Amino acid sequence: MSIMKNIMKQNILVPIIFSILFIITFTIEPIDQIIDGFIKILMSPSILVSDYLLVGGLSATLLNVSLTVLLNLYLLKRMNLKMTGPIFACLLTIAGFAFFGKNLFNALPLYLGIYLYAKATKTEMKNYVLVLLLSSGISPIVSYLIFGVGLPFYQSIPLGIIIGIFVGFILPAFNAHAIKFHQGYNLYNTGFSMGVISMMLTGIISVFTTINRQVDVNNAFHFELLYATIIVSVLLIIAAYIMDPKVHLKYPLILKKSGRLITDFPAIAGKEATMLNIGIMGLLSIVLVLGLGIQINGPVMGAILTIVGFAAFGKHPKNSIPVVIGAILAVALTPMELTLGPILAIFFVTGLAPLAGQYGFFAGILAGFVHLLITPLALQFQGGFDLYNNGFAAGFVAAVLSSLFAIIKPDTDTKPI
User: Fold this and answer.
1) pLDDT, tens digit, for every residue of 205-234?
2) Where would I find the H helices in 56-84?
3) Model-level pTM?
4) By the 8 A CB rule, do 320 and 350 touch?
5) pLDDT tens digits for 140-176?
6) Are 331 and 375 in contact (CB under 8 A)?
7) Which phi and psi angles does 189 have, rounded to 5°?
8) I want to staple 240 with a disulfide (CB 3.0 to 4.6 A). Which of 155, 276, 308, 354 is the partner?
9) Axis-axis angle for helices 361-382, 389-408 (nearest 10)
10) Alpha-helical regions (H) of 183-221
11) What count of other Cβ atoms lies within 10 Å of the Cβ of residue 120?
């Protein structure tokens, strides 16, 4: 118990986990196969949806996940930032989308753009840490321009890097304004910001070339990822009780919160209660997988890790279950089929959990129902360059419904962000 407490105190649990993952990667397949698969991932156009398990295989994907997260942990260390609920959510989101769209290369131009913005505005880089960590959600624009449009490398490489830097440069300022649009009821605020930018880029690129998207996935590693999620979730719950045998008494502090931005669960209820919530949300994700009868592939694993991450920053069972029910009802009551898009929307709809937390169970169901119906349209608008497509859709849903709910239930606290 003292070892676990020391690990938590030193904020090294996440670095340890992903360092172990990095080591495990090289025990699965021969190193030449891993490197070959990793190169394929780095050279993938990476547009939504690109399942890296299909592109490079399991080992190469895990290598991409571990290296991408470790790079961001290094940047956090350079900025002298400690682990918080928001930062944990961002890191797990990075890990999740490193299964389908983010890689060690395509995020770097965006990071450079944000760095240049900080220099231009004479502000500290740490002021934009959440935007920095989540900016890689639009990183497919870099990969697609370099590897997907068919230009020679001497043209495509500078083009992709320059556009990536430009997007990174404008993102911090635009993101700060975007949160006012939905008043903090969309946990994936950066996804909404990047969706708007992606929509503009899609319009420009579509004039010159046809944007080709693929939706092929690899379900071959379903059981490995399923068991890994269960084991890690159970271990987190056990660790929470080892560190604090009465952690369940603090857990209601989390359940009482709406989750509206910005809600830092470790600061509210402590790390132990947050770990308990993370473990519970991980198990609920597995219940959803089994209940829907679906297979875990790269995109679904990304969705699960995003839910787990935001279990430290806004999501809990009480506010997440209603929106998930609403999304499932949308599939059940309409001609929509349970293909990859709706499956991902059912998981990512939890970005709207604050609406249920603030306005109640039935408001959450309505939000989830509407979200599932407009998500395909959002993808058409933004072209697949914004990996956080559900964040883009959720921004519109949150903006409209929060305004409506505020009229119906005016006594609820709806102070502007």
Assistant:
1) 888 887 877 778 999 999 999 999 999 999
2) 58-78
3) 0.92
4) yes
5) 999 999 998 889 999 999 999 999 999 999 999 888 7
6) no
7) -60, -40
8) 276
9) 140
10) 189-208
11) 9
